[in-house]
Amino acid sequence: MIREVRSCFPRVSIHRMCALLGVSRSLVYVRCAPPSFEAELLAIERLVTTYLGYGYRRVARAMQADGFSVTEYSVRKLMRDHGLLARRPRSRGVTRAGARDRRACNLAKGMRARHPSELWGADTTRLTTDSGPVYLAAILDLFSRKVVGWSLSRRNDEALVADCLRRALDLRRPDNGWIHHTDQGSTYTASGYTRIIRDYGGRCSLSAPGKPRDNAHVESFFRTLKLEEIDRKRYESFLEAQHSIGRFIEQIYNATRMHSALEYMSPDQFESRLAGETR
Fold it and tell me: Assuming Cys at both sites, which of 65, 101, 138, 177 could form a disulfide with 97, CB separation 3.0 to 4.6 Å?
């Protein structure tokens, strides 16, 4: 009230006004309480706990979809002030390519998939359980980043990647000329594996060692999987790992987890929108 009245009587000091009105001068300088962002913080904590790899942009989009009036700037400030910004896994370096490796046939280089099942990427990673190491093979449709095939085994062999490939082929049934891209691992260059690809009308594409960006989308999926699922769990058995990883892939990564490259939609949502547009 003092501040409002003083604008009408600029020559009267605050000390004199307080004396006339019978109020303490300290009340004039009391700052208003800062706005509470409790609801926003709870929403942010829920999102970054579920999706550890979410940065402020994806968090802001998810909150806006839930009805919050926030901007990327306000979300970034809240996340930074409360230590909620996403942590980035460190790169472990790459293998240098030799002259022979650089002659590998890379059909996917510079290519951008414009339709589902046009370009697939595949790779394998090692995981740990209390009962010993296990190996996960995965295939992504690079049009929508959707995991279209995955398989878990105690052995990193041709049978593992072949099972993963057959699951993907049973699900998608790509047209002739589709491209299967991966590294030059012995399991992916085995004659039996490449024969399956050719039998289904596909073409093999290989990236050279020392060129991790050639298969960056699959590597990114594995980083997300380890950050948001594997590093947070302790698997006592092979079956527990299989169940938990399958749940993450099908119910979270494919169904709900947003991708900035997909206009902040999940792979399933992105493909559903395409299906609706082509009807």
Answer: 101
User: Distance (Å, rounded) from C-alpha 220 to C-alpha 125?
Assistant: 12
In the sheet that holds 119-129, the strands lie side by side as 146-153, 132-141, 119-129, 179-182, 203-206
CA separation for the pair 212, 181 (Å, rounded): 12
Strand partners, 238: none
Euclidean distance between the first and final Cα of the chain, in Å? 63
Q: pLDDT tens for residues 82-94? A: 777 766 555 555 4
Cα–Cα dist 115/119, whole Å: 8
| pTM recorded for the entire structure | 0.73
Residues 136 and 161: their CA atoms lie apart, in Å, by: 9
Scored b (16 or more CB within 10 A) or e, 112-126 reads: ebeebbbbbbbbbbe
36-54 pLDDT tens trace:
678 888 888 888 877 877 8
Tokens of 129: 């359980």
Q: Residue 79 corresponds to which tokens in the numbers above?
A: 């996340």
**C-beta separation of 111 from 203 below 8 A:** no
DSSP string over 219-256: HHHHHHHHHHTGGG---SSHHHHHHHHHHIIIIIITTT
Torsional class of 132: left (φ above 0), alpha (ψ -120 to 50), beta (otherwise): left
